[in-house]
Amino acid sequence: MRYFFAVLWNLFVSVVWISQVHACPCGCSVAGPLSFQAAGQMRVVSQLGTERPLGSYDAEGDLYQERGPDQILEWSQSLGYALNAAHSISATVPLLMNARYSGERNTSLGDPSLGWRYGIPGAIIVGDGWISSSLTLASKFPVAKSVNEMSEDPYSMDIHGNGYYELAAGVDTAWTNAVWTVTPGAGVIWRNPRWDTIAGEYIRRTPGLGTRADLSVGYNWIGSGELKAFVRRDWRGQDQLADRLIEDSGSLSHSLGVVTSLRIAEQTNMSVQLLRKGLTGLDYGATRLFSVRVSVEKTLS
Predict the structure, then answer these.
(1) Contact predicate 87/118, CB 8 Å
(2) pTM for the full model?
(3) Are the C-beta atoms of 277 and 29 separated by less than 8 Å?
(4) Taking burial as the number of CB atoms within 10 A of a residue's CB, which of 30, 109, 146, 226 is the most buried?
(5) SS3 category, 201
(6) Neighbours of 2 (CB within 10 A)
(7) Residue 193: other Cβ atoms inside 10 A
C-alpha cells in the first residue's frame, strides 16, 4: 500500500503528458512522439500502467495457460520539447515489472524511444471546424532482455523487450471544432534484420514490416476535460529467414479503448485510459489483453 501511494504522489508532483504507443501497451514497442498544443514549450511524462492477459487460445480455439507473467506493470518517464511552432522532439524511458500471482517479480529498464513530430503549417476550414495534420518519426533501441537472448525458456519472467531496433513513421490528421475532435491516423514500423543461430547455422532473420491504422473521437468540455473513444489495428507481416518467408509468422491485433481527461489544476490534467486488445498470431491462435493507464499532464511555458 505504501508503494501504491508513493507512485501516485510521484505522478502528481511530476510534469507529465500521455504519449502515443505504436504497439503493445506496456513498453515492448516504440513510443511515439509527444503531442504539443499551441501553448507550452515543454512537457515531461510520468505514466503508470498495468496489463493483464484475459486468456490465450490455440489455433483450435481452446484456452491454454501461458508461462509468462500474470501481470505487467509499467512506469514510464518522458520529456518533450517544442523547438518551434512546427517541430518538437521527445524521449521516453520505461521501467517494467513482470509479476505472477505466486509473488514472483522481475523488474528491468525497458527499451528507450526517441521521437520527432512535425505539425504541417496551416489548417483547412471544413464546416464549423478545421483540419490539421502532423508527421511523426520515432525510434526504439533494444536495451532490455528479449526472447532473442533466451534459448532455454522463451517465456521467462526476465523478458522486457522484443530485441529489435525499431523505426516508426506516421501521419495523423485531426478535424476539430468547439467540442468535437475526430483523428484518423496511420503508420509503418520497420525492425532491423538480425542474425540467429538455428541448428548450428548462422542465418539472417528479417522481421516483417508492421503497419497501424487508428481512429479516435473525442468530446471536449472547454476548460474542464475530454472524453475520447478509439479503435486501432496493428498488422505485422511475415518474417524472412535466409530470404525465405516463414509461414504464419505474422500477427494481427485490434484494440478498443476509452480515455477520460480532467483538469485538476492550472495547466494540469489527469487522465485514465482503459484498453482491451485482441492479438491474433497466424500460427498460435489468439491472446486477449486488458490494460489501464493513469497519468498527469503539466504544460510548461
Answers:
(1) yes
(2) 0.81
(3) no
(4) 30
(5) strand
(6) 6
(7) 13
In the chain the domains, ranked by start, together with CATH numbers, are: 2-300 (2.40.160.40)
The H-or-E segment that residue 7 falls in is helix 2-13
pLDDT digits (tens, 9 = 90+) for 140-177: 999 888 776 655 555 567 788 888 999 999 999 999 99
Question: Taking a C-beta distance cutoff of 8 angstroms, is the pair 230, 259 a contact?
Answer: yes
Cell triple for 92: 521516453
Tallying the residues shown for the chain, one arrives at: 301
What pLDDT is attached to residue 12? 33
- Summarize pLDDT for 222-241 with one digit per residue, the tens: 888 899 999 999 999 988 88
Q: Report residue 12: phi and psi, to 5°.
A: -70, -35
DSSP E strand stretches across the chain = 42-57, 63-64, 71-82, 87-99, 105-109, 113-119, 124-126, 129-140, 166-176, 180-191, 194-198, 201-206, 210-221, 225-236, 240-241, 244-245, 251-265, 268-281, 285-300
Tell me the one-letter amino acid at 169.
A
Q: Which of 76, 103, 112, 106 is CA-nearest to residue 291?
A: 76
β-sheet bridge partners, residue 58? none
The maximal CA–CA distance of the chain, rounded, in angstroms, is 65
Q: Which residues contact 149 (CB under 8 A, 6 or more apart)?
A: 163
Read off the C-alpha cell for 46. Answer: 510520468
108 vs 230, more confident: 230
C-alpha cell at 141: 533501441
Chain-centre distance of CA 285, in angstroms? 22
Query: Nearest 5°: phi and psi at 25?
Result: -65, -25
